[in-house]
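Recall the central idea of this unit: under ordinary conditions, the amino acid sequence of a chain determines the structure it adopts. In this exercise we apply that idea directly, starting from the sequence alone.
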Amino acid sequence: MEYYNKTLCVTFEELTGGCSPVIAPATLRQNMRRGNIQCVRQGKGEGNYALYVYQSLPVKYRNMFETKYGKPADVLKAQEMRGWVKEDGEARAFYEAFEYDLNGIQTRLSKKLIDEYTMNASILKLMWEHMNQLTSTTHALGGGKRDLWGIVYAQSEKLREVTGHTLPKNLARLKEKMQQYKKGGYEVLISGKIGNSNTLKITEEAGIRLIALKRNRVPVLTDAQIFRQFNSEAEEKGWKPLRSLRSLTLWFASPAVEPLWHDAVFGEMSAHQRFDRRHRTQLPTMRDALWYGDGTKLNLYYRDEDGKVRTTSVYEVIDAATETFLGFCISDTEDYEAQYLAYRMAIQVSGHKPYEIVHDNQGGHKKANSSGMLDKICRVHRTTAPYNGASKTIESVFGRFQQQVLHKDWRFTGQNVTAKKDSSRPNMEFIEANKDQLYTLEELKAAYVKARTEWNEMIHSAANATGTVAKSRWQMYQESENPETPVVTPSDMVDMFWVICDRLSTFTSSGIEITVKGKKRVYEVMSAPGVPDMEWRRTHTYQKFVVKYDPYDFSSIRLYWKDKAGELRFERVAEPYIVIHRALQEQAEGEAAFIRAQQTAAEQNRIERQVAAKAIEYAEGVAPEQNGLTTPKLKGVRADVQRQIDRRTRRYSRQPEELSLGRVTKRVSNIDWLDLDEQPVTIEMKKVAGKL
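Accordingly, the structure predicted from this sequence is:
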């Protein structure tokens, strides 16, 4: 309330402020439009506030104003008196910085006390100024007797009504307080109750003893036992005995003391998680920027083949930006195989390599690291801080997945055993009564796939938080793009998920053999579907190869050899070795033809091998025939096979003469005129033909 252009006015805040306003803002504006209330200044511009003519207020609103604030004259007088009091800024700064010992802990004043002491100091400063003015005036007027302290006291009481200060109400005590303030300054206004004069007194030495007793592990002491033991030692040590167990418990729980004993009682990791600073992080905004991989309990009961109630685990891979479940593997252990299958599924579902993967440091991950699988999947992979669940976003996702999806199934195992809500625990009586209705393991896997699908199709929480168009997690994942995550190609799948055999494997005449999980598998190289590549065999049989195989698809393997630099060079793809039936009765269609073809190919292979070897002998002059000896004939082959070898190795310069008339006649009958033009015919054959 104030005068504006000699007109008594009230402010907008006085009319509409507080928990019980004189008039509602909307009602005030409505009365202004109707002309019932006159506004003499708009609340526009910096530092301006709206003013309304007090007399223009309807009677009921004036009555409500006076009920709340008092008569206008009293309000103006109080405002005038409040205007006399200027806050002492130095006093406020002093009280805000002031510290005192509270149960051995340096503590600052509360805001309420700071405001109270600042007001009292400001009033005392004003009253001393008034006292000095009165003294000067009295001396100037000849030093007549005046009750100066009575005048100052009266002023103090008037200001009490306006400001609510807490200076003494008695004249003698007020005079004493003013004298103390003049000599001691701001500190004399602080109550004697502040600073532990009426509370627990724990000296530094006593505090050290109490912390030592709290940390003691042999024996472990309760607070009550510490209380009794400390008091039994206090007199001898010269310490003040503790008054109550509650005050000791509060002292132990104080922020400055608890870090000194918490690790001994609850463990250092608990102290680390409770007291050390945590990062505030922002999740990625693009798909595939960050994947989390972690194993957890699959929170559904099932019954095994023996009818026993069991649980199992699942390893999940999720996209951090959209919380989409990408790949999983249900397994009793969080081993390398489970991780391999989960990441493989995630890559196949995504079609892209992630930029970064975060996982824990379990044994399976160590093998994945050593095998190089994670290095091939992403650009960066790292472990989370050990024993720090708060740093693993996937833990939060698992928790909400359990609460929102798995919890609906009566087979739900409940959340972590440390969960405090009864709703987070299973109804074991009901499960026991209906265990014959529990899932089998295969049914459990199908139910989990359905639950994962439901989670992926649920609306992402980010849509509610940001007010954007509601989208499912899977829709958000599909519509998101990440230009720095490459598309996965078939060769990438081989590089990432095909496994290299621990040892080199030799390609023999019986193919190349590998052993996976105790099972032997044999492969060979084909030139066409179902046709062994005999040409390749001639130059690679008994060569050692590095073998890559797909652990979940043994329809082919890939053969590599190492160069001098140790780099792998791709050779060929090998397929399962063709197996034929030994018994004629069991042979399938085409097997007999395959056997004959392979016999012919084997003969030809022997021929080519002999021809190549003999050519080298003759070229170098080391053939047995060049040295008066004879090369042994091949065993187990037809005579024409041996003749072909002899002819091609220059043992004889021409075909042997045929002396049998019947055979000669047969040969002549098979000769065509084109054969006479294109092929050389021996003189002997011409003679025979002429005689016929």
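The first strand starts at residue 2 and ends at 4.
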